[in-house]
Prior knowledge:
By secondary structure, this protein is an alpha/beta fold.
Amino acid sequence: MSRASNSPMGVTALAAGVFVLGLGGCTSSSSSPPEPVYPEKDRAAEAARLLSGPDWYRHAVFYEVYVRSLQDSGGDGIGDLRGLAVRLDDLKALGVDALWLMPIMPSPLADSGYDVSDYRAIHPDYGTMADLDALLAAAHARGMRVMLDLVLNHTSVEHAWFQESRQDRTNPRADWYVWSDTPSSPDIPCAQVPTFGTTAWTWDAVRGQYYFHRFFPSQPDLNYWNPEVAAATLDVVRFWLDRGVDGFRCDVIGLLYESQAGCSMIPETSAYIRELRGVLDGYRDRTMVAEPTFFGSTAPYFGGGRDMFHMAFDFDFAFGWTTYFEGSAAQPVADHFAAVQQGLPAGAQNAIQLGNHDLPRAYERTNGIASRWRRAAIVQATMPGTPFLYYGEELALRPGTQVVVDGRDHARTPMPWSADPGLGFTTGQPWIAFGADAARTSLAVERADPDGEYAFYKGLLALRRGREAFGTGTLRLLPTDDPSILLYVRESPDETYVVAVGMDERAAHVGIAPGANLPGDPRRLLGNATLAREGTSARVTVPPAGTGVFRVR
Ligand SMILES: [Ca+2]
């Protein structure tokens, strides 16, 4: 939060933090034992170790970028690859290790680029292939990675494949899309219900048939039952891997094949994903993350744990955290992560988001109550999984009001970097209006505020960095006798951490966790909660909406 904000957390949490810190200093000189000092590692060296090799993504912090809204370099008001390259140092300073770029391939932009018209080129709005090469080189020189958005279920109607396929029923690509004489197909009964609109079938007057589209009519589904299609899209994957991209976020990947058996993650789709993984494994340290079709366990995307996706988005948490933090019960959060633990095969690791390009801004979803997204962010950074930030979350960006494509544009507004004209984003007219209070939430303003959003995120990401326990350590949930305290242990072979989150925003709580068996006395690294060993139990005290991250070994 900026200082000028009237949101409750900005002032109260700051005050509580200072108060508790002061009190802690007082009591330690009288009754409490001094905090232990544990051997400190060279965290930069640890981070370098953990972020190298094929498992790097388990320890990395990812950052989703809408290139169109991050940084304009040319003055046309549209963010581009050259602009993004200029901002790499700012993102690295925040603690970002890897970028996921929303679609940058040529597209009529009927769906913000999720309607690709050419799989092997760069959208002219965003630059050239040389600009991408330069971005990759600049990122790699900084130890950062770049993932592209891979939209394989459908193309744009403007893609050459579709333009050819629609010509007649006998052309070489006649069977590359799903055509039918009727707005239905007995082979895929599930394909009657589109995600958008009222029909999944649109009449094409050129060919004189209907085509199937799971999403907008301008996004015809590819026909993966044609082996040429599967081969062609795997070639697209090789094309980008050869170019040096570090991996992919795979859009609605579960929907590739439809059959009588269903429309999501049927065996043929799983087989394709295994093949896709095989392609990535032919390159060094590449990774891919799945966008699941539905809520629920992401287990279907992991197969045996290491033969399908490296990661899959935990949509239950991404969509559900606002509900968790509106209440005051710890159990739903604990239950969720316990279910994730039990449900995933060994080797699988979810990707944890608070927001993305399809969701309203965290600020809007919490009515501007910072303590909610901040506590959720602590869970995001310390529970098993890889954190994916959505650009601007570190500034608590407010929603916009202008719509260019659809209502999701409210969370796709330009990044405010400074209070200069154009807010450092552009010297021209931005393609869409900034969100509310943009100048006040700019990086320059937030960075100058030690209690602001940016400082919070930077501190949190620094805490995770170079600490193996948060990337791949075990999780042990510690139930307490107070139902509003979330308490858990993350442990790597040589370090142990305890995280405490107070779910009650209004009252302080004290909880006892019997059988906690902490290996040592707590040293607080973050937050305002206190933790003490009492025999084999642990006693935790949390102020309203309080948090604490402690090292105990
Ligand atoms: Ca499909």
